């Protein structure tokens, strides 16, 4: 087996491998999306985050504009501080609403951003002041039962 | 009574001999690492081994991957459509392949094809005294023969696993979209939304590298340690396949539990 043919075949082999890896990354995985763009981080406080997890999508008008970075519990004020990375291309005003929605009926939870009307925009390190917690099923049921009970009175 | 004692004797003997062999294999592993400089300075040694382990395995990997992908597509569709989620077939095929089937099946095929070839080659070299001849000439057989094969195996495994996953996904696509009629856009978009590069694809690659190290070391050790007879070499190749398969599946469980929790 002479050297040139050997080298050629190994070169082709490695090339096929690299192409399949790139194919996997781009077509099968999600490497083409906002993971490689520059982002800015803002925080938001929630009383109950429900099933929100890190790396959950952050959507504006249904379009993914960022990802949840981290979720920590504030031991002083007893609420959750959620840090989100928003793509630098998308700017939101300072009075944006951050709500936790569920994708589909039982799907994963995500943060939906609704723009307010202020002129100044959110910057790195700002805090979103208007937030709405996730819908917790137990609270909904107890609300329903309570309203049913008071109705019958 | 005597048969019972003999039974325990056999167990004890096999246990101690296996432990000794495990120690010898670990020694071989560290020797390979120490003598690895030559595998990279004289890279043509390693390239020759990449040809014989990797390029020659391409046919079996690609054909198996295509059929595995097609079967996944078919079976997945008939189960998913009962729950009305036939559009998730892309996610099913891609995640099964990238996370588990790609690395594991590639490693099993690699152990069967390339592993046995390595074991037989080195066993034969030992039986025909080529290894002793090299030592006589002050050429380290580990540096010249064993280490290049080790690095070739480690380099080849992730490449083969990526090829397996990609061809498998294409196989699943061929069954799901043109043949069964699942919507093409839904197939790819659901897949892209649910397959994460860092957690799925990179983890699959890490698994395939670990399997490559394990399989290649087992194949090299069985060949190096084989009794220098024809029967010894053939027994050694069988042991390579059996041991590699068990170790791959055990390591798969260990790695998966690390990756899921951590």
Describe the structure.
Chain A is an alpha/beta fold. Chain A is 27% helix and 31% strand. Chain A is built from 2 helices and 8 strands; from the N terminus they run αββββββββα. An 8-stranded mixed sheet of chain A has the order 7-1-4-3-2-6-5-8, with no helix packed on it. Chain A is elongated. Chain B is an all-alpha fold. Chains A and B meet through helix 1 of A and helix 3, helix 7, helix 8 and helix 9 of B.
Q: What is the ordering of alpha helices and beta strands of chain A? A: HEEEEEEEEH
CA-atom Rg of chain B in angstroms: 22 Å
Task: Let me know the largest β-sheet of chain B.
Answer: none
**What is the helical fraction of chain A, as a range of percent?**
25-40%
User: What share of the residues of chain A does DSSP label as strand, in percent?
Assistant: 25-35%
Number of domains of chain A: 2
Oligomeric nature of the chains:
heterodimer
Radius of gyration of chain A: 23 Å
| Element pattern of chain B in H and E | HHHHHHHHHH
List unreliable stretches of 5+ residues of chain A: none
Kindly state the number of beta strands of chain A: 8
Low-pLDDT ranges of chain B: none
Instruction: Report the structural category of chain A.
Output: alpha/beta
Main beta sheet strand tally, sense and closure of chain A:
8 strands, mixed
Biggest interface, CB < 8 A:
A-B, 26 and 29 residues
Shape of chain B: globular
Overall tally of structural domains of chain B = 1
Helical content of chain B (DSSP H or I, runs of 4+): over 70%
Mean pLDDT of chain B: 92
Strand content of chain B: under 5%
Keywords:
heterodimer; A: 153 residues; alpha/beta; 2 domains; 8-stranded mixed beta sheet; 2 helices; 8 strands; B: 262 residues; mainly alpha; 10 helices; 0% strand; globular
Write the layout of secondary structure elements.
The complex is a heterodimer of chains A (153) and B (262).
Chain A: H1 3-28, E1 39-46, E2 57-60, E3 63-73, E4 80-87, E5 97-102, E6 109-114, E7 127-128, E8 130-132, H2 137-152
Chain B: H1 2-34, H2 37-41, H3 43-53, H4 58-80, H5 89-127, H6 130-136, H7 141-180, H8 184-194, H9 197-225, H10 230-261
Helix pairs in contact in B: 3-7, 4-5, 4-7, 5-7, 5-8, 5-9, 5-10, 7-9, 9-10
